[in-house]
Amino acid sequence: MTDQADQAQPTERRPAGARTRPGQAAPPSLAAPRPRGELRTWPRSFAHRLTSPLPGVRAIARLAREGRLRPPVDALRQIPELPFEPGPPPVVGPGEAAVTWAGHASCVLRVGGLTVLTDPVWSRRILGTPARVTPVGVRWEDLPPIDAVVISHNHYDHLDAPTLKRLPRHTPLFVPAGLAAWCRARRFTDVTELDWWEAAEVPGPDGPVRFDFVPAHHWSKRTLTDTCRSLWGGWVITAPGGRRIYFAGDTGYGHWFREIGHRYPGIDLALLPIGAYDPRWMLRPVHTDPEEAVRAFGDLGARAMMPMHWSTFLLSAEPPLEPLQRVRAAWEAARLPREALWDLPVGASRVLIRPDE
């Protein structure tokens, strides 16, 4: 079967406001938006998209032998110190954008006049993981009507069925290739699955808002028999006028960041994961550590970075506060402007203001 990423797609002009970094070749034209909700056929497996081999039996045995599955007990004393400032999303004016961190990879984006959820997980507990250590930062009843949801991949801490059940079934869902059947089985009627470098749109008050699915260094698995049966990736969301937000989802560090920055110049805000990275011998291929996230920010050429994927579920062995401490130190070591690091507490919000406004 032909991989749809390799098929030629119609192209469209780049949105107004997109910029190329000095000395860099002009980016390729973006693919024309695909119809929402179309039925598509995919390869049986996306394992050929992996950028690193998945851990085998020996790696799992070593992990169990070392006992480094969760932070040491004495480090759990840091949990009460995790920053938490719950509140509703801000009201934004025409042409403005804002982000609210609900926790983990769940964000409420206000962009292009739309309200978009990223990997929404409002559940207290997910399969195979201890309960969340900070509550959800935004009460469900405080959310405005949801105009779209983006899903990065099918792992339980990113695709949460109980949370999705709270949404109206006509809510537009944008998901990786191979995941639409799962959503349609739960009676969602507007499901668009995309391959890497493909896009679709949602109408907004000032024009269509574009959703591009982009690569990530990760994998997928939800049951014992579906390893890499659906794709994984991040999302670039572009509003009319060119305001652009990149949501990385779950990813390790690698060459895709520079390619994303090349194809989508002028990213205003990058939402990048900084947690669940220890032990490195096991997790380096699929989870960036704080220093790698700062490096990825530079590769992307983004204006601001919001760290995420920490302070919510204790998925690995690093102490709870260590990701924040290390990302701040790496940011300072890179001599980046402090105001461009949006190290928000869970529940906090920030309004995006472009330098030319």
TrEMBL record:
Residues 116-310 form the Metallo-beta-lactamase domain. Gene3D superfamilies: Ribonuclease Z/Hydroxyacylglutathione hydrolase-like. Signal peptide: none annotated. One of its GO terms (cellular component) is cytoplasm. SUPFAM superfamilies: Metallo-hydrolase/oxidoreductase. Residues 1-38 are annotated as: Disordered. InterPro entries: Metallo-B-lactamas, RibonucZ/Hydroxyglut_hydro. Residues 1-10 have a biased composition (Polar residues). This is Metallo-beta-lactamase domain-containing protein. It comes from Streptomyces sparsogenes DSM 40356.
